[in-house]
Specification:
Length: about 110
């Protein structure tokens, strides 16, 4: 499955369960390299998740990794910690917000 499809499914899942987003007001900028990658903004505001191509608005956290690693992370085949320890993921901005992304992906 491509990273964009994984993200689209995540948005649909989150919007079907707004309780998972209670109190979150964040914008994740995802830089997914390699085949099936791209630059995306995953915004969560007022209990609503949206996905768009990366824009000019500031992100709360920027996460860079390969599209394949992102799909593996979302599917539970790898963990964010394993990717970080292996130097395969880079995070800029609010680290706490970035850590929340993994739990959202697996919700």
């Amino acid at each position: 499955m491509a990273a964009k499809e994984t993200l689209s499914e995540l948005v649909a899942r989150l919007n079907g369960r707004p309780e998972l987003m209670t109190g979150l007001e964040v914008r994740y900028r995802l830089h997914l390299s390699g085949e099936g990658g791209g630059n995306f903004d995953l915004a969560i505001s007022s209990g609503q998740a949206t996905l768009s191509e990366a824009g000019d608005q500031p992100a709360t956290a920027e996460v860079s990794l390969s599209a394949g690693d992102f799909v593996s992370l979302a599917g539970g085949q790898t963990s964010g910690m394993a990717l970080f320890m292996g130097g395969r993921i880079r995070v800029e901005g609010d680290l706490g917000t970035a850590l929340k992304l993994e739990s959202l992906l697996r919700s």
